[in-house]
Amino acid sequence: MSKYYFLTQFCSAFFLRYRVVFYIKENADKSLKMMSNLSSISSDDLKIFSHLSHLSLTRNQLQTTPADLLLCCAFQDEKYLYLVMEFMPGGDLVTLTSNYDIPEEWAQFYTAEVVLALDAIHSLGFIHRDIKPDNMLLDRNGHFKLADFGTCTKMDSTGLVSCDAAVGTPDYISPEVLMSQGWTGYYGRECDWWSVGVFIYELLVGDTPFYSESLVGTYGKIMDHKNSLTFPDDIEMSKDAKDLICAFLSSRFKTPWSTLKK
């Protein structure tokens, strides 16, 4: 730890602490994630961080891509596992949306960035499974990177994952993920694209499209999305924006490229 100066702590949870540190070697501020109770951290989680850190080695392919929050290094002592990551001084998109009414031009910009970031993750063989504004961190120039890969998992050779639980945040979970509950179901990258549709809707409307006061109500609306998806009359939104949201919120949606080109 002699390579770092501790500046401030900005978040603390059950077994997590986040601090801003000054990394002497790079002469730059970094975000330090400190995880205690190492027995709760699986080897698969560590492998995911390792794979995602390889994005920094392929910068020539990702020069115009926001990609993902890069892991600079990792180490541990008897109390913590330390993950040194890029420091994103702009906070998350939740903070941005709470301070501004997001125009369609901004929504278009951030949609393009999340699509590029997800394409980078998917090309490595992973799906994120928790796409939401809370996990989109802004740098000093207003670009964002995806964070929080605790739900990220590796796809098999057919591009699918096997799971028997509803992984993710309820308002953003896709029908395919919900249908996997209670038995071993299979789904692929379409679950991430579904969450992008929810994200765009939330940017423009201010609420998620399937919100309900109860979890059962939310899940019911998601499963009946063809009938429950509505657009508020008091929110001005172009037909193109509505069409894009509907395209992402489709169980048949596999890739964004043909849709975005339109």
Describe the structure.
This protein has helices spanning 43-53, 93-99, 104-123, 175-178, 190-205, 215-223, 225-228, 239-248, 257-261, and strands at 4-12, 16-23, 28-35, 71-76, 81-86, 126-127, 136-138, 144-146, 153-154, 160-163, 185-188. By secondary structure, it is α+β, with helices and mostly antiparallel strands. The protein has 2 domains: 4-86, Phosphorylase Kinase, domain 1 (2-Layer Sandwich); 93-261, Transferase(Phosphotransferase), domain 1. The protein has a 5-stranded antiparallel sheet with strand order 1-2-3-5-4, covered by helices on one side. Helix 3 packs antiparallel against helix 5 (190-205) and helix 5 (190-205) packs antiparallel against helix 8.
Short description:
Helix content is 33%, strand content 21%. With 262 residues, the protein is α+β, with helices and mostly antiparallel strands.
In helices, the fraction of residues equals 25-40%
Strand content: 15-25%
Number of strands: 11
| Rg, Cα atoms, Å | 19 Å
Outline: globular
End-to-end separation: 51 Å
Q: How many domains?
A: 2
